[in-house]
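Let's practice the habit of predicting before peeking. Look at the sequence and jot down your guess about where helices and strands might fall. Then scroll down.
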Amino acid sequence: MREKGITAYRLGKMGFPQSNYYAIKRGENISTHTLNQLCRLLECRVEDILEYIDEKD
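Done guessing? Here is the structure:
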């Protein structure tokens, strides 16, 4: 979002629910639909916004 100059407010105006935005910020689970919607709005690829971190016990 920072690279694209898009704020959370603008993202909401583009149709992305603020509840999904805050879920992502809190590190909660999101659906692939939500991830797809965010990539579409930001015109980016999944790997641009998602990183896998192995959580070993």
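How did you do? The chain has a mean pLDDT of 90.
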